[in-house]
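**User:** Here is a favour to ask of a fellow structure person. Please take any protein you like and set down a full record of it. No explanation is needed for now; the record alone will do.

**Assistant:**
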Amino acid sequence: MTGKVTDQNGNAIEGVVVSDGFTCVKTDAQGKYAFNRNANAKFVYYTVPADCEVPVHSATDNTANFYLPLAEGTYEYDFKLTKLAGGKETNHMVYVVEAYIVYVATVERVDWARYSPCSTSLPATVSSAVTPTSLSTTR
């Protein structure tokens, strides 16, 4: 699988993680990526850099749309992102998938040992945020 990640003006975006759910790679200085597609993969996903808008499905469906379905016989998937007018966002988000965290009141009062099934990098990721904020998840 190959492709390129560019901004709305066609400029390459370096360092974007692209994945088929089995393999992850980063785009190079030309915005290009390449990896062997897993036979069980159904989608190709990418991370949205902090200086780009999160694409949504439509004006009425504001759910994030950072993936494409894989089609048989298609091996190239390009992504065009839109740079934010104000530059890099300063908000921080942590996505936790298939973890046991239900609610964490504040970063300062987290008993990380309680959440040992989570990745060991989670405490470092959250603690590295510029301003600790309340975290919550939905069930």
Notes: The radius of gyration is 17 Å. The chain has a mean pLDDT of 77.
